[in-house]
Write a structure and sequence with these properties.
By secondary structure, this protein is mainly β. It is built from two helices and 20 strands. Strands 2-4-12-1-6-7-8 form a seven-stranded mixed sheet, with no helix packed on it. Strands 3-13-5-9-10-11 form a six-stranded antiparallel sheet. The N and C termini lie far apart (about 70 Å). The N terminus is likely disordered.
Length: about 325
């Protein structure tokens, strides 16, 4: 029987008879091609509430001569083809068809987004090239920590990456989980020598979050440099604010920043009077440096972040 290549994520122990490699969380994707049985050891990652942990890999499959037996309950999730080339996804107790079919030695990009459900167990959204929607499967057991990624049988794998960002850096929406796209963007930012790679050693989670939100390599600052009175189309008084974005690097040098590339959301905090009711509005700026304050607002400030700021001027 010809063996197949199977991605076994979230393994409890290292399989025998496999070469072993270390895989760094939040590092760039691997560039070398690993062939046949391989085991990648990961610094233990605990998937906590609100987190979205990503696994990416480009896998080249071989087709087995027989359909697989029942999946192993020792693995929280596994991926493999049957003899017809249908890629199957398991939660350790049953196989589910992904809807994607491969030929012998055909490559597919596989992405697994892992979250913790309200009951404390993990679930996986699996996306494979050719799928219209992710396939969600539940994990076996209640252990939410993993440290091994194994590839078994014949085939190859490359572009392997694991991304995990604490919610203290990238908050999750109330009752939800981190946006998978922002988790991926964080890894890109972190490995950019002029951005995350330029942050001072020992930067706090708050400092990393602020810098990532503005997409800069230092301490960000967003100021209103000019206030221009005017009227809207209905004759009401409005004010236009001109903003300037900057950041200060580890050497204390200030640089201009762009609002076109922010990862966070720009918020406007405003009120008609200093002691009046304060409102907070999210703005889609598209890189513009001018915004019209809410009708009636006379006092305002702006900020960029991942959560709505306090209603306080």
């Amino acid at each position: 029987m010809k063996h197949l290549l199977s991605a076994l994520a979230f393994c409890a122990a290292l399989p025998v008879c496999a070469q072993s490699y270390d895989l760094t969380v939040n590092a760039p994707a691997t560039s070398e091609t690993l062939k046949d049985a391989q085991t990648l050891s990961i610094s233990p990652v605990s998937v906590k509430g609100g987190m979205t942990v990503l696994l990416d890999a480009t896998m080249t499959f071989t087709l087995p001569s027989e359909d697989p037996e029942a999946p192993s309950g020792e693995d929280k999730i596994s991926i493999m083809p049957n003899k017809a080339g249908e890629i199957l996804v398991s939660n350790g107790t049953a196989w589910a068809k992904s809807g994607v079919t491969v030929k012998d030695y055909e490559s597919k990009h596989v992405k697994i987004a892992t979250v913790q459900e309200t009951d404390g167990k993990l679930s996986f959204d699996v996306t494979i090239d050719g799928m219209a929607e992710p396939l969600r499967v539940a994990a076996t057991g209640t252990d939410n920590t993993f440290g091994t990624l194994a590839f078994e049988g014949e085939g190859s794998v490359t572009n392997v990456a694991v991304a995990a960002v604490p919610t203290a850096i990238l908050p999750a929406p109330d009752g939800g989980t981190q946006d998978a796209g922002l988790v991926s963007d964080y890894v890109t930012w972190l490995n950019d020598s002029s951005k995350g790679g330029a942050m001072p050693e020992g930067s706090s989670n708050d400092e990393l979050s602020d810098a990532f939100a503005m997409n800069v390599g230092g301490t960000p600052k967003l100021t209103i440099t000019r206030v221009s009175p005017g009227t809207d189309g209905e004759g009401s008084d409005v004010f236009t604010f001109t903003m300037k974005a900057t950041y200060t690097d580890a050497d204390g040098t200030e640089h201009d920043a762009s609002l076109a590339d922010i990862n966070g959301t720009l918020y406007v905090i405003s009120a008609e009077t200093l002691d009046g009711e304060v409102t907070v509005e999210a703005q889609e700026m598209g890189g513009a440096t001018e915004l019209v304050a809410p009708a009636g607002a006379r006092f305002a400030k702006v900020s960029v972040g991942f959560t709505e700021p306090e209603k306080k001027l």
